[in-house]
Amino acid sequence: QVQLVESGGGLVQAGGSLRLSCAVSGSIPSINVMGWYRQAPGKQRELVADITTGGWTNYGDSVKGRFTISRDSVKKMVYLQMNSLKFEDTAVYYCNVHDYYTNYRSGSWGQGTQVTVSS
Length: 119
Hints:
mainly beta; seven-stranded mixed sheet; 11 strands; globular
């Protein structure tokens, strides 16, 4: 009964910024990982960034130095600040939450939000 709802996507020019938000409701593991994944047309879903309950972060190589993930565990929110956007960042961005001792494939997903970067 876990629900995740993404928001904040849109159309931006290369070099611009967007901030994505994900609201989580329902019961989730006390020790967990919240993350963002993306899927472009014709491509597999890939990790963008994730963050543990303790604040440890992990970023995909292509977004390191440009994107920042953060969370508010009290509000059960996770955010993704995206700067210096590139055309290659165009994708549907999905929010995910899973048990710390498993992986994202065992977690819950949101419906996704479209990010389009013009070039």
